[in-house]
Design brief:
Elements (H helix, E strand, L loop, with lengths): L9 H17 L2 E11 L2 E12 L8 H13 L8 E7 L3 E8 L4 E8 L6 E8 L5 H13 L14
Antiparallel strand pairs: 1-2, 2-6, 3-4, 4-5, 5-6
Length: 158
């Protein structure tokens, strides 16, 4: 059963999702978007982007990296409406949580990678304002299940 409100838009929508996915991949990320449910308020959409980003400087303690990131975001006037906190994610430790609810919801987690200057950015969004609080709970639960399982590349010896 198709949604009459989306008739004729499927090719454009697929093209847009393909473009966003390719840009995420090209920058080292992974993008996922799902139509969860059609409701009386319109389609219920959630987006997830995972991205590995290079950090500035040398690797340091994760707690210090989180404090510095939280301070930088909190001090930026363009993030004045954001709720910025340092949280503990069960499988990875400290992370910076940035949440904005304005016509929808965006929740980001900045997770410093141990023994590295890199960090993982988890970005969760939904434009469906009537369900913003429910999405925040869902996004926080998804972030709580995030785990890092990787090996740092070793320098060749010899």
């Amino acid at each position: 059963m198709s949604d009459p409100g989306l008739s004729g838009c499927s090719a454009r929508l697929i093209s847009l999702l393909d473009d966003v996915t390719r840009r995420a991949h090209d920058s080292g990320g992974f993008f996922c978007s799902s139509l969860v449910l059609a409701s009386g308020d319109g389609p219920l959409v959630a987006n997830v982007l995972l991205q590995l980003c290079a950090g500035n400087g040398a690797p340091g303690p994760v707690e210090l990296a989180c404090a510095d990131l939280a301070e930088a975001v909190s001090g930026d006037p363009s993030w004045a409406d954001a709720d910025v906190t340092v949280v503990e994610l069960p499988s990875v430790g400290p992370a910076v949580r940035v949440a904005v609810m304005a016509g929808g919801v965006c929740v980001q987690y900045l997770v410093p990678a141990p023994d590295s200057s890199e960090y993982v950015v988890l970005t969760f969004t939904s434009p469906t304002a009537p369900y913003a609080d429910a999405f925040v709970e869902l996004f926080d639960s998804m972030a709580a299940s995030f785990a890092l399982d990787y090996e740092l590349p070793t320098e060749p010896t010899g």
